[in-house]
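Re-run with default settings, no changes from the original entry. Doing this only to confirm the output is reproducible before filing.
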Amino acid sequence: MQRETGTHMPGEVDRHEYDFKLTTVRYLDARPEELTDVGLDPEQLDKWCSNVFMFGEVVDRGAADGLGMTMRLHVKGFLPHSFFIVVRIIDVIQHEYMRVAVSGDLEGIGDVTLIPDGAGCQWHLDWRMSITRGWMRPIGRIFHRPMLWNHKWAMNQAARLVVDEVHRRRAAAEGRVVEPRATFPHNLMIVRHWQRRRASASRWRG
């Protein structure tokens, strides 16, 4: 179970440093160490959360606690655009806190904090991001509210599905994970593969 305890968009757009500042808080029916195990297994992201994380590849495995781990991700929300990003874990307090640096189509910092709460935990996400892809920057400024809603949709999906994945692992469930489908046009494999080839040749570098 995941319960929304707050989604705050202070100022909604920080024009001085980042395009977007977003804070999301959820109660998740999962223990911090269980969420750590799932989060440090990025190559499975596109299995249990493929409607948000359409592809994951580890570039550098980093330390045992995740520090230094670097991964390439192809991500999207409900809206038809997607982003190619490189995520690197730059600070860790195991099972409590993680800071990531993001580059690629988005650039910025993300903080993930886990606070034990009964049988589960409070999941705090703080994102400060700017869009770097040229043609999307003016769109992001004009349509910032739909972009914020798009982010919230993606976080809601991720929160629900990470709990499902934790419960599946608890039960040591066998068989194929039911993969949620990305929204149009990325539900079409040919679109995902075409975009991935373009990104590999240009903006998607670790």
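The first helix runs from residue 32 to 39. The first strand starts at residue 2 and ends at 8.
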